[in-house]
Specification:
The chain is α/β, with parallel strands linked by helices. It has 3 helices and 6 strands; from the N terminus they run E-E-H-E-H-E-E-E-H. The radius of gyration is 16 Å and the shape is globular. The protein starts with a strand and ends in a 6-residue tail after the last helix.
Amino acid sequence: MDMVVQTPRLPVMGETILGQSVQFVPGGKGANQAIGLARLGAELAMIGSVGQDLFGGELLGSLQTGGVNSTGVKKTESGETGTAFIVLAEGDNSTASSSCPEPMPSAYRLTSMPRSS
Protein backbone atom coordinates (compact mmCIF):
# COMPACT_ATOMS: atom_id res chain seq x y z
CA MET A 1 0.00 0.00 0.00
CA ASP A 2 1.36 3.41 -0.94
CA MET A 3 0.80 6.18 1.61
CA VAL A 4 1.37 9.45 -0.22
CA VAL A 5 1.71 12.76 1.63
CA GLN A 6 1.78 16.04 -0.33
CA THR A 7 3.96 18.68 1.34
CA PRO A 8 5.11 22.18 0.37
CA ARG A 9 8.74 20.93 0.36
CA LEU A 10 10.71 17.84 1.33
CA PRO A 11 11.68 17.82 5.01
CA VAL A 12 15.35 17.86 5.96
CA MET A 13 16.76 15.07 8.14
CA GLY A 14 15.07 15.11 11.57
CA GLU A 15 12.46 17.71 10.59
CA THR A 16 8.71 17.29 10.81
CA ILE A 17 6.56 19.37 8.47
CA LEU A 18 2.80 19.58 8.03
CA GLY A 19 1.42 17.78 5.01
CA GLN A 20 -1.30 19.27 2.82
CA SER A 21 -3.02 15.98 1.99
CA VAL A 22 -2.62 12.23 2.36
CA GLN A 23 -3.79 9.40 0.10
CA PHE A 24 -3.74 5.63 0.55
CA VAL A 25 -3.19 4.15 -2.91
CA PRO A 26 -3.12 0.42 -3.65
CA GLY A 27 0.13 -0.10 -5.44
CA GLY A 28 3.42 -1.81 -5.79
CA LYS A 29 5.34 -1.76 -9.04
CA GLY A 30 4.24 -5.23 -10.13
CA ALA A 31 0.59 -4.70 -9.19
CA ASN A 32 0.49 -1.33 -10.97
CA GLN A 33 1.94 -2.87 -14.14
CA ALA A 34 -0.44 -5.85 -13.98
CA ILE A 35 -3.51 -3.61 -13.64
CA GLY A 36 -2.28 -1.36 -16.45
CA LEU A 37 -1.86 -4.34 -18.78
CA ALA A 38 -5.26 -5.76 -17.79
CA ARG A 39 -6.84 -2.41 -18.68
CA LEU A 40 -5.24 -2.74 -22.12
CA GLY A 41 -6.89 -6.15 -22.54
CA ALA A 42 -4.09 -8.50 -21.46
CA GLU A 43 -5.01 -11.65 -19.52
CA LEU A 44 -2.59 -12.10 -16.65
CA ALA A 45 -2.19 -13.30 -13.12
CA MET A 46 -0.26 -12.09 -10.10
CA ILE A 47 1.75 -14.33 -7.77
CA GLY A 48 2.86 -13.07 -4.38
CA SER A 49 1.80 -12.55 -0.80
CA VAL A 50 0.12 -9.95 1.38
CA GLY A 51 -0.35 -9.72 5.13
CA GLN A 52 -3.43 -10.61 7.17
CA ASP A 53 -4.10 -6.91 7.70
CA LEU A 54 -6.41 -4.25 6.26
CA PHE A 55 -3.93 -3.30 3.52
CA GLY A 56 -3.69 -6.91 2.32
CA GLY A 57 -7.43 -7.05 1.69
CA GLU A 58 -7.36 -3.66 -0.02
CA LEU A 59 -4.57 -4.73 -2.38
CA LEU A 60 -6.30 -8.01 -3.27
CA GLY A 61 -9.51 -6.10 -3.97
CA SER A 62 -7.63 -3.65 -6.16
CA LEU A 63 -6.15 -6.48 -8.27
CA GLN A 64 -9.55 -8.12 -8.68
CA THR A 65 -11.27 -4.84 -9.57
CA GLY A 66 -8.45 -4.13 -12.03
CA GLY A 67 -9.10 -7.40 -13.87
CA VAL A 68 -6.04 -9.28 -12.61
CA ASN A 69 -6.29 -12.95 -11.60
CA SER A 70 -5.17 -12.82 -7.96
CA THR A 71 -5.64 -16.49 -7.01
CA GLY A 72 -1.84 -16.75 -6.81
CA VAL A 73 -1.64 -14.03 -4.14
CA LYS A 74 -1.80 -15.60 -0.70
CA LYS A 75 -2.27 -14.06 2.73
CA THR A 76 0.69 -14.79 4.99
CA GLU A 77 0.29 -16.41 8.39
CA SER A 78 2.13 -13.55 10.04
CA GLY A 79 3.43 -10.15 9.16
CA GLU A 80 2.09 -7.07 7.51
CA THR A 81 1.51 -6.12 3.91
CA GLY A 82 4.36 -4.25 2.25
CA THR A 83 4.01 -0.48 2.32
CA ALA A 84 5.64 2.59 0.82
CA PHE A 85 5.66 5.98 2.53
CA ILE A 86 6.00 8.63 -0.16
CA VAL A 87 6.48 12.36 0.42
CA LEU A 88 5.70 14.47 -2.68
CA ALA A 89 6.92 18.05 -2.91
CA GLU A 90 7.94 20.49 -5.60
CA GLY A 91 7.83 17.87 -8.37
CA ASP A 92 10.11 15.51 -6.44
CA ASN A 93 9.61 12.70 -3.95
CA SER A 94 11.24 10.73 -1.19
CA THR A 95 10.20 7.15 -0.39
CA ALA A 96 10.72 4.68 2.44
CA SER A 97 9.29 1.19 1.99
CA SER A 98 8.90 -2.16 3.71
CA SER A 99 8.17 -5.46 2.03
CA CYS A 100 5.96 -8.34 3.10
CA PRO A 101 8.19 -10.35 5.47
CA GLU A 102 7.02 -13.82 4.40
CA PRO A 103 7.82 -14.61 0.74
CA MET A 104 6.06 -17.37 -1.15
CA PRO A 105 7.85 -20.74 -1.23
CA SER A 106 9.59 -21.19 -4.60
CA ALA A 107 7.79 -24.50 -5.25
CA TYR A 108 4.44 -22.67 -5.03
CA ARG A 109 5.61 -20.01 -7.40
CA LEU A 110 6.43 -22.58 -10.04
CA THR A 111 3.68 -25.17 -9.68
CA SER A 112 0.54 -23.87 -8.02
CA MET A 113 -0.62 -21.07 -10.31
CA PRO A 114 -4.02 -21.93 -11.81
CA ARG A 115 -4.07 -22.00 -15.57
CA SER A 116 -6.81 -20.28 -17.54
CA SER A 117 -8.59 -22.18 -20.28
